Amino acid sequence: MWQRYKYHVLMHVIIFLWGFTGILGKLIHKDFLHIVWYRVLIACIALGIFLLLSSKSLSVSRKDLPKIIGVGIIVALHWMSFYWAIQLSTASLAILCLSTTTLHVTWLEPLVMKRKFSWREFIMGLLVIVGIAFVAKDFTMKENYALFIGLFSALCAAFFSVFNGKLSQKIAAEHLTFYELLTGFIFTSIVLLYIGKLNLEALKLSGTDFAWLLFLGIICTSFAFLATIVIVRKLGAFTVSLNINLEPIYTIVLAIVLLHEHEILSPSFYWGAATILFVLLGNGLLKHFETSKKEKYSGID
Length: 301
Fold this sequence. Notes:
By secondary structure, the chain is mainly alpha-helical. It has one domain (2-298). 81% of the residues lie in helices and 0% in strands. The protein is globular. It starts with a helix and ends with a helix.
């Protein structure tokens, strides 16, 4: 029985780890830029060691390098804005903002991947906005600012998802991620250098913060990425993408248990969260039925 379900269990462990990354934005006592800097540095080193030990070449085409660098900068901007939103408000708000990624993918994929525009996905994306409106109903100016930054993070996540999907068609996923992380590290270093925060004093860490950052960089980033490659190969991309919709639920539950965010969030927040999660899961189930129907009539088993 374990052999049958072990990849499903591993998948939910990975989604749980992704949900926990938002919580770490509160547990690590560094500003958002330094969290991202350490995350990409540690993840890049860990992934690089793995590739070298597995005797895999790190070379990529010079023609593809500018595109990889562009996506790497988008990844860095996504994580910067994500952790900034968390530190301005709550982990629950940031992860819900990230749910709007689906809406942006709806209009980006037809442009980049030449896929047919889906009105159903667009309407569901609008319903996500209704949920966000409920979430923001009782917000202060500072929380609205955090909301705006969180929504920008979701936009970056959508660009990353779509462009990465196109690049991964001809570049090995391990190589693609390594160079994107390396680009993210260089870009974040330039930002920190520009604002005068790339020095020993600013980069100083407590023992607890160092431990959390190792966990974030190695387990939640490098290990999660490599494990996801295996899971997608075993279970299929659709099954994985459907279950990823559970990430906000994991984050909100963790935020309630570990950070007691339910004490500072209003009932309208949870009504909005319920609307968003219902739309995400509903969209995923509809896609599942559509895929099953197509496979049935095409004779695929």
